[in-house]
Write a structure and sequence with these properties.
207 residues; mainly alpha; 0% strand; globular
Length: 207
């Protein structure tokens, strides 16, 4: 199990790095959108390539940051049921979900995406829009996103089983509940308003 935990940490590190790099595509997309809007407004000229580049960049963020989101446990969750369960009960639900829901989904998507990408790459598929971009890089992003998600699925399953067996501490156990978030906000507000901790000491205000 120790070797699997090390493998999990390597996967986490790689997907987090990929996610952090891909997240900068948001900034690039904003710049491309702004420049395209300025050129269209000032010179009355537009380009399908610029428009398609924007959704290429958005797709890169969506697909390449998905595994990082899963790793950070920041995906959408419904806590109505899980909040009423014990820690082991929540872990059991996570293991069940990873095996019977997430795994079949990513396996299916990989099975569909591989020929979807390879056919596009081999044919040199180009956008049907005038002046559009190549299509196969966008399809490659979809495949790459699900490859990284597959590895992250394996990492999450390894960590959850190790936690249930007492071989790994759950570092995120208290970081995502509504109660933990409320306590964190209360603590931060109290810190800001406490004299000597960054807040304004009593009597030092302008009268």
């Amino acid at each position: 199990m120790t070797a699997l935990i090390k493998l999990s940490r390597v996967i986490d590190a790689i997907n987090e790095r990929i996610g952090k790099v891909a997240a900068w595509a948001i900034v690039v997309a904003i710049l491309v959108s702004a420049i395209n809007a300025i050129i269209r407004r000032v010179f009355g000229v537009s380009s399908n390539a610029w428009l398609e580049l924007q959704w290429y960049l958005f797709g890169a963020v969506f697909m390449l940051c998905a595994a990082w989101t899963l790793k950070a446990n920041e995906h959408i969750r419904i806590d109505i049921v899980s909040s009423r369960l014990s820690k082991r009960g929540r872990d059991s639900i996570d293991v069940f979900g990873h095996i019977f829901f997430l795994m079949p989904f990513v396996m299916l998507m990989l099975w569909l995406c591989i020929p979807y990408f390879t056919k596009s790459f081999e044919s040199g598929e180009v956008s049907s829009n005038a002046g559009g971009l190549l299509i196969w890089p966008a399809k490659g992003l979809i495949l790459l996103g699900f490859i990284s998600m597959t590895f992250q699925w394996l990492s999450e399953l390894i960590k959850r089983v190790a936690i249930m067996n007492g071989q790994l501490a759950d570092e995120e156990a208290a970081g995502h509940s509504a109660e933990a978030e409320a306590e964190r906000l209360i603590h931060e507000i109290g810190t800001v308003n406490t004299p000597g901790a960054g807040g304004t000491p009593p009597g030092d205000g302008i009268s």
